[in-house]
C-alpha cells in the first residue's frame, strides 16, 4: 500500500486490536506487527504511530508502563478498562465502514 493516508483513520482501531490480542506491546513492536500481519503492505511510521499512542493514552484508552530493557527504558502500552470496552465497538465501526466502501466500489448486479 503506497498511500498510507487511508490507514490514518483506522490506525487507532488497529492499535486497540493488536493490544487486545497481544497484551502489552511497545511502539516499534506495533509497527513491526502491522507490517508483518499485512504482508508488508502497511508501513506505519514512528511519526504516525507515537502521536496516535499518546492521544489514545490521553483519552484513557491506553495505559503505559516504563521498563528497563538492555540498559534502556522502553514504554509498553496496554489497554485500559475503557480501551477494552472500546475495542469491539471500534472494530464493529471499522467493519461497517469497510462494508459500505465495498458496496460502493463493487456494487451487486440487480
From TrEMBL:
Residues 15-88 form the Transcription regulator PadR N-terminal domain. It comes from the Bacteria. Coiled coil: none annotated. SUPFAM superfamilies: Winged helix' DNA-binding domain. Pfam families: PadR. PANTHER family: PADR-FAMILY TRANSCRIPTIONAL REGULATOR (PTHR33169), TRANSCRIPTIONAL REGULATOR RV3488 (PTHR33169:SF14). This is Putative transcriptional regulator. It comes from Owenweeksia hongkongensis (strain DSM 17368 / CIP 108786 / JCM 12287 / NRRL B-23963 / UST20020801). The lineage of its organism: Bacteria, Pseudomonadati, Bacteroidota, Flavobacteriia, Flavobacteriales.
